[in-house]
Task: inverse folding
């Protein structure tokens, strides 16, 4: 035995060398297999984590990076290989002499394969998977639909020549920077937006990046906006590193160039600190900027060519005014006075739009006279770069607002920095504290009222849409005027937000007169130890840096304060200042993104109605908060450090209407759902909500288990809204929303208790968004017909993930026809549905909605069992899904057909005309997306995005008759489909058809990793037109020899991308010739 040990030891010594490695395969294969199993478990866990992140990113409408999908595909393939290896090869060997098989050749083979698999996993984990903590790029900014006014800023005849000259100079290699210069409100930003549109439509640059600079520029914010508009996010925190990162993004592809648009530049900007200068020198980008101040161009590293933006002509100004004011001014009674009003707007677009919108369709001549009189009598303050008539028009529109609440909302928006996304929810909470209307009993009623006010302010162009959810913006000119109005003595506002103040701002009048103050400080220092502001009702403070000190007597001189909002670095101490207890009139307190310790002093503020700690670092909500007997709203959103809510706090808040504690899961849970079991910890329990659950209007909570959610919560308020997460739910880091739809998310191991859970059943009835991820007994989740008590169904978004034993979602009606339960459904996501799911509906009709075979017979052939195609949407259901906008199907193992069209009446059909996005991934048995159906079918006219990934039984994408329907399609992506032979396949009866097939709006076509793809369309009976195609990416398609066998027109296409940073310019302007050139290059 010792001799054997010595021999083995010697072999091990040899095995560390390059030759001895072969011996290692023989001797170490058992330990290698153990290592492989350990690594295999790690890759399974990593794959699951990445998949969950992908699901969360898609749910948040982020764009999942293409390399992540490629990584997941590689992992799936490797997992299949290793499972087979462990199941067949390794398992077979263990049966031979307890694993010590004397067949040295077999043992050597096993050892070598094991090591190869280990290396493959390590490579996937270390080199690839480790980078996917964030699997997405930010979604491109949502297109805010242009209002009718936006169109008029670009169609002026007097400006067409300027726009064309700018476009011509952007093509000039010798010009690197261009500036549009003009006074505020003249339309510079709109011209820049029009130039951006023309640049994209004419394909002058590969990409366009847009950022707003503003009067007090933040270089890091500018960098972030530029990066996000290019579809990425900067990872570095500090300015210099971010500049290098942005430079790398701008120059990553030497064959592509970027137009950088910098809007609203007030002073010389250091473009080198931003990261743009060197990219300009390398001819990777150019800059277009807009400015009120011509002198701001002189101090730039690169001298721009300046184009002045002039006033509108008299005819243009009148035509714009007529469009804004409407048909009422065509009457003989108003025409003359309307022309006088238009003349007072001084040919300035912004003034014309605001006054025209204000007087639109007003037929009372006296109203017009009054408006004209006010415009003439206005005594505007002098604001740098702003025409007095613009000021007058905005002031007039403000004066004409019908309610004090509307005026208040407008002025509150100027309390935020320039170009800031103003949360409407802030206006709501200020509105509650300011008693907007005595007739509004709840916070929710105030919220609805404020949203209506904001909608009207947008209509009047006093506020603008924002890219962020539930936010608005103010035009910089409108904000300047709003601050001017708010600063008048009768309003008493102080707004100092231009730069972080080192010291408390001096004032030319006594602090006694101020009613509202909004300040941005570097940190809390250099301030008066005790401010005397006896009339101050609203104080909003933000700090750039975390403050280490805060004077205890700070609030002593502001006893009338009703609204206090302190953000970011205002607090960084263990307790609040003692003087906060003096604020007995305080109704709203918002401590946002603060570092907080002991907050028990807040419990003394007996009149407090709104209390928020959003995004703050706070560990405990103490028992003293329960003393706030008037509290209506408690907001603990995104308090990631929160560990404890003291038991009894919630039960004492007897007037609470709205509770936001999404993300906190450390609830005191009882051992029985009735709520009378033993409490498992000393935290607040949701049982505390029972006695006033009927008065709750809004509830957002996360609970780790259904045991934490009592069965007898009676949410009976007519306006009740909720967002409830049960289980280990992925929480996105996107924007917080307060005006959400009813959302229920369930992720649990066993759903057997749900059927008797009255709280869950009541929530199911009201849910608009439903997400299910249930391991077993998920058959208890059903949307039954109305007489069985679950309907009416209000679902607009349904997501089902896992649910291994889910059989069906619907019960058929008595006549066996599918129930019209999902008639409101807008989004459907199916992810990881198992083989034995029977269907969406249990109809006994032969055309039931079936996902897999039902009632399989034993001891018969597969062919006998497979009696019909396994379709997601058979023809008798499609018309009941008329509102469906998005469909995502991922890892539905048995799905063979998406749309079963056979049996549809061609003359009556007009189906799925709201569907805009279709995404199919990892469907191993998918054979058809559209199956059969009449060639004259109508529908799918608004599908914009079609993506198919890793569907390894799919041989084609669609047929000519379907292709002709997809007139709004903008993006096609087909990737990792091993059996895909052609994208467009011929269909019976189409042989003699010579129609041209056009894809009028497709901008991007991606064909990747398609080993059997030979062409887009192999027949010669159709020509093709792609008038909008800008990007085509083709790589890893080894059998591709041509695009089509007939002519194809691609006027906007400049070339073909064949890999990362690999771009082939068009050859002879022909796509076929370009592809053949690529093939020749590879061969050579």
Result:
């Amino acid at each position: 035995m010792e001799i054997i040990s010595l021999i083995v030891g010697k072999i091990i010594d040899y095995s560390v060398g390059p030759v001895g490695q072969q011996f290692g395969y023989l001797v170490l294969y058992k330990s290698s297999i153990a290592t492989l199993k350990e690594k295999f478990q790690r890759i399974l866990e990593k794959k699951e984590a990445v998949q969950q992140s992908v699901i969360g990113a898609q749910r948040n409408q982020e764009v999942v990076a293409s390399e992540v999908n490629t990584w997941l595909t590689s992992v799936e393939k490797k997992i299949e290989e290793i499972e087979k290896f462990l199941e067949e090869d390794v398992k077979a060997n263990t049966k031979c002499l307890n694993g010590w098989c004397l067949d040295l050749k077999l043992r050597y083979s096993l050892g070598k394969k094991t090591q190869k698999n280990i290396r493959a996993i390590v490579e996937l984990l270390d080199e690839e998977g480790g980078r996917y903590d964030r699997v997405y790029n930010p979604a491109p900014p949502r297109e805010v639909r242009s209002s009718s006014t936006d169109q008029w800023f670009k169609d002026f005849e007097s400006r067409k020549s300027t726009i064309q000259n700018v476009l011509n100079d952007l093509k000039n290699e010798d010009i690197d920077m261009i500036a549009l210069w003009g006074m505020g409100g003249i339309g510079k930003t709109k011209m820049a937006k029009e130039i951006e549109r023309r640049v994209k439509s004419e394909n002058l640059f590969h990409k366009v990046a847009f950022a707003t600079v503003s009067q007090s520029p933040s270089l890091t914010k500018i960098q972030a906006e530029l990066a996000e508009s290019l579809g990425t996010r900067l990872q570095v925190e500090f300015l210099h590193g971010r500049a290098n990162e942005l430079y790398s993004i701008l120059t990553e592809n030497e064959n592509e160039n970027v137009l950088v648009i910098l809007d609203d530049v007030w002073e010389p900007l250091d473009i080198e600190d931003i990261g743009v200068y060197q990219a300009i020198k390398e001819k990777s980008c150019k800059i277009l900027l807009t400015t009120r101040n011509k002198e701001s161009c002189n101090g730039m590293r690169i001298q721009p060519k300046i184009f002045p933006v002039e006033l509108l002509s008299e005819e243009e100004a009148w035509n714009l005014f007529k469009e804004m004011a409407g048909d009422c001014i065509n009457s003989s009674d108003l025409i003359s006075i309307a022309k006088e009003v238009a003349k007072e707007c001084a040919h300035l677009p912004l003034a014309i739009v605001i006054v025209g919108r204000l007087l639109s369709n007003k037929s009372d001549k006296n109203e017009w006279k009054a408006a004209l009189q006010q415009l003439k009598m206005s005594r505007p303050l002098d604001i740098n770069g702003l025409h007095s008539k613009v000021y007058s028009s905005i002031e007039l529109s403000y004066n004409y607002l019908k309610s004090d609440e509307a005026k208040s909302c407008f002025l509150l928006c100027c309390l935020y920095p320039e170009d800031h996304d103003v949360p409407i929810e802030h206006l709501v909470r200020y509105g509650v504290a300011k008693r907007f209307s005595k007739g509004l009993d709840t916070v929710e009623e105030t919220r609805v009222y404020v949203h209506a006010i904001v909608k009207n302010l947008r209509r009047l162009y006093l506020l603008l849409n924002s890219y962020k959810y539930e936010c608005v913006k103010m035009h910089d000119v409108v904000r300047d005027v709003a601050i001017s109005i708010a600063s008048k003595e009768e309003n008493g506002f102080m707004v100092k937000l231009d730069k972080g103040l080192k010291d408390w701002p001096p004032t030319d009048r006594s602090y006694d007169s101020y009613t509202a103050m909004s300040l941005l400080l570097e940190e809390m220092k250099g301030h008066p130890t005790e401010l005397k502001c006896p009339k101050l009702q609203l104080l909003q403070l933000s700090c750039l840096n975390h403050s280490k000190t805060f004077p205890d007597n700070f609030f002593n001189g502001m006893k009338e304060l009703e609204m206090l909002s302190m953000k970011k670095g205002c607090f960084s101490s263990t307790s609040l200042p003692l003087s906060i207890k003096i604020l007995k009139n305080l109704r709203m307190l918002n401590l946002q993104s603060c570092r907080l310790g002991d907050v028990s002093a807040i419990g003394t503020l007996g009149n407090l109605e709104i209390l928020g700690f959003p995004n703050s670092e706070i560990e405990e909500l103490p028992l003293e908060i329960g003393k706030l007997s008037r509290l209506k709203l408690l907001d603990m959103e995104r308090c990631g450090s929160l560990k404890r809510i003291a038991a009894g706090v919630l039960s004492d808040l007897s007037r609470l209407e709205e509770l936001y504690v999404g993300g906190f899961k450390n609830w005191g849970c009882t051992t029985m759902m009735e709520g009378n079991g033993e409490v498992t910890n000393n935290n607040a329990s949701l049982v505390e909500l029972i006695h006033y659950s009927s008065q709750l209007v809004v509830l957002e909570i996360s609970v780790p288990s259904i045991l934490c959610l009592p069965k007898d919560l009676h949410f009976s308020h007519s306006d009740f809204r909720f967002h409830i997460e049960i289980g280990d739910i992925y929480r996105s880091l996107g924007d917080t929303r307060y005006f959400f739809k009813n959302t229920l998310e369930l992720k649990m191991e066993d759903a057997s208790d749900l059927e008797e859970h009255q709280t869950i059943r009541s929530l199911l009835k009201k849910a608009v968004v439903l997400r299910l991820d249930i391991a077993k007994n998920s058959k208890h989740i059903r949307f039954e017909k109305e007489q069985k008590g679950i309907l009416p169904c209000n679902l607009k978004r349904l997501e089902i993930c896992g649910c291994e034993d889910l059989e069906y979602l619907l019960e058929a009606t008595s006549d066996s026809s599918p129930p019209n339960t999902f008639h409101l459904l807008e989004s459907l996501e199916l992810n990881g549905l198992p083989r034995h799911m029977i269907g969406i509906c249990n109809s006994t009709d032969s055309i039931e909605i079936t996902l897999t075979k039902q009632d399989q017979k034993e001891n018969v052939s597969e062919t006998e069992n497979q009696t019909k195609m396994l379709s997601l949407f058979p023809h008798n259901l499609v018309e009941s899904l008329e509102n469906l906008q998005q469909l995502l199907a991922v890892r539905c193992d048995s799905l063979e057909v998406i749309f079963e069209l056979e049996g549809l009446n061609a003359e009556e059909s007009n189906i799925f005309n709201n569907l805009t996005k279709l995404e199919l991934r990892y469907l191993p048995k998918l054979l058809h997306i559209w199956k059969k159906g009449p060639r004259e079918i109508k529908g799918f006219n608004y599908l914009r995005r079609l993506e198919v990934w890793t569907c390894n039984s799919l041989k084609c994408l669609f047929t000519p008759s379907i292709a002709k329907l997809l007139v709004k399609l903008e993006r096609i992506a087909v990737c990792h489909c091993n059996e895909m032979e052609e994208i467009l396949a011929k269909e019976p009866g189409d042989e003699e058809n010579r129609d041209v097939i056009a894809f009028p709006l497709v901008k991007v076509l991606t064909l990747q990793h398609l080993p059997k793809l030979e062409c887009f369309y192999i027949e010669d009976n159709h020509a093709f037109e792609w008038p909008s195609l800008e990007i085509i990416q083709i790589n890893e398609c080894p059998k591709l020899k041509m695009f089509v066998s007939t002519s194809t027109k691609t006027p906007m296409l400049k070339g073909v991308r064949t890999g990362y940073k690999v771009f082939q310019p068009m050859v002879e302007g022909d796509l076929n010739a370009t592809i053949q050139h690529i093939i020749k290059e590879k061969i050579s």
Observations:
- The chain is about 30% helix and 15% strand.
- Residues 268 and 297 are 6 Å apart (CA to CA).
